[in-house]
Amino acid sequence: MTRALQELGYDFREFLISPQQLNIPNSRLRYYLIARRKASERTCFPFSNEVIHEQLPQLNFECDLCDSRWKSHYRQTKEPLTSFIERLTHEQTVKHALSDNVLDKYSIVFDIVTENSLNSCCFTKGYRQLFKGTGSILQENSTIVTTDYFNELPRYEDDSSSKASALRIEKLKLLKLRYFTPREVANLMCFPSTFSFPKEVTEKQMYKVLGNSVNIDVVSTMLRYLLYANMVENE
């Protein structure tokens, strides 16, 4: 692909970027490529094309309108998950609670976070269908230290008896574990507050399309680099 871009006269840059680099508490490492056809032999971008960039290059971007919009939403420091979490009603909480069967069998593979956590796992289209590596689980009772708590519970793999299962479920329910809502996943992917799904889209479909999507702020950063390239070419 890159060889074809070179042959066609494009200047391009490659990235491996996660939203964490923009102080968003979500891991979503993705490959990005931006390209622009060169009007001359002059490079379009003021940073190297010899590596795949794993850090976002800093630019001296002198467009007052674009720069003010950029700074208005750019996060200067790491934000905890609380900034992205909804305050649910009791009915909504029950709807997104984990079932007894899931608590019993799969709790050992959960990535559990609280509202004070500074990161969450990448949400995939299998969220709520699969339980390992598909996204984080929110612990609403943050008074309990999860690691210590889990060490005291019998593992399903070691003891699947009805007595052990009942104990696990009873203890795990005290953590108040629930799934992230589609709106919360959208928040972590930086979709604007005005974004909404059509009414006919089911919740399962929402998770699927969000899991196949990309982070809006990361994409806007890539577009910002292209705008910079446009300014360089027109100088």
The dominant shape is elongated
Distance between the termini: 29 Å
Q: What is the count of β-strands?
A: 6
Strand order across the largest sheet = 2-1-3
Total domains, how many? 2
| Helix content range | 25-40%
Q: Segments where pLDDT lies below 50 for 5+ residues?
A: none
Task: Please state roughly what percent of the residues sit in beta strands, choosing from under 5%, 5-15%, 15-25%, 25-35%, 35-45% or over 45%.
Answer: 5-15%
Count of DSSP helices? 9
Q: Which sequence of SSEs, written as H and E, runs from N to C?
A: HEEEHHHEEHHEHHH
What would the average pLDDT be, to the nearest integer? 87
Radius of gyration based on Cα positions: 22 Å
Q: What class do helices, strands and sheet pairing give?
A: alpha/beta
Largest sheet: 3 strands, mixed
Give a structural overview.
With 235 residues, the protein is α/β, with parallel strands linked by helices. It contains nine helices and six strands. It folds into two domains: 2-78 and 215-234, no CATH class; 87-180, DNA Methylase, subunit A, domain 2 (DNA Methylase, Chain A, domain 2, Alpha-Beta Complex). The chain has helices spanning 2-7, 64-73, 90-95, 100-106, 146-151, 162-173, 182-188, 203-211, 216-234; strands spanning 10-17, 30-37, 52-53, 112-113, 137-139, 177-179. α4 crosses α6.
